[in-house]
Amino acid sequence: MNYKESLEYIHCGFFGGTRPGLERVGELLGKLGDPQDSLRFVHVAGTNGKGSVCAMTDSVLRAAGYHTGLYTSPYLERFNERMVCDGEEISDEELAELTSYVKPFAEEMKDKPTEFELITAVAMLFFARHKCDPVVLEVGMGGRLDATNIIKTPLISVITGISLDHTAILGDTVAAIAREKAGIIKPGVPVIFGGESYEALEVIKDTAKACGCDLFAVDREKIRVTSCDLSGTGLEYAGERVKLGLLGIYQPYNAATVISVIQVLRRQGLDIPDAALGKGMADAKWKGRFEKLSERDPLFLIDGSHNPEGIAAAIASIKHYFGEEKVCLLTGVLRDKDHKSMAKELSKVAAEAFVIKPPNPRALEPSLYAKEFEACSVSAKPFDSISEAVRSAVGEAKKRNIPLVALGSLYMYGEIKAAYLGL
Prior knowledge:
This protein is an alpha/beta fold. It is 40% helix and 16% strand.
């Protein structure tokens, strides 16, 4: 298969959707020689923040001279973003080659792997082939039954913030979701918890104790933010002083989690100098998290907030950076999200809403979402075309001389960015 054919094969629907469990991925990786067993991992789960934590951790380890792997999802512009070695995405040719290699093993299985399990198997072969050490491994969904949990003994298990999301699969309480996330905890492996939920912490404490693990919980009250504006964020935590290039007033919490991770990895013998920590945090990049697409005319920020906790953090950031000034909002959501409450909260900072349909089968119709903004006394216009919505939103933000913020679903990122760059 060539690159195009490999992507078509991965996404063809031949493999089932979300079916939690480790049996299929275990069987497939066994047929491939269990490449994951030759690797060391930093395993990261959580509702929000895990992508940023993974990106910063990977950046710090690379700055320290490590030959890292990075596995994340979903991708925002190109599929290849999902598996990265030393900061470089897998090439089109290698992705096609590895997918072609995995294909016959997957097809001979009686219970076929899911799409995510297939991708995870390809990624493990990629990381093993390049001898990545360590691999920063982001959980796809949940933890206990996620395909990434096939790994045996990571260097460290990391759980970021926990809130209600994917409730139909993971449970409808914070405690139930925490139990699923805590499923990545392995016997004797140190655990970091970066969230603020006491309910979640109690579940994680119990799991860590049962597994004989040291637990390190980020003390948010001890984070000292020294600067926080649109040029970046400075903070001090646990004796470390760093400056982040990533925006969003929630990033200090993610950074404190990363600092805790690095300090534990140092205890395990990894050589990570202070200079590497500083450089890695400053250089870390992560698409779609209060990312600046434009500095002016208008200032254009795009954020992947797509659940209540993420929306609340985005609103807090908007208020911090812009005070009482309202923003033009470019937004779209999936219909299985709590979109009514999201619209209600976003209406507090929106001068006007430009509503689009994310490129996903589960997307909510723009006309329905627009009505929810109108019910909150915010003028809202639905669009069939993302490019036309971007054009209109940019024009209105320029006219009003106010910022433009896009958020609501990560699935919109690629088309929004392409449409803006094409203006």
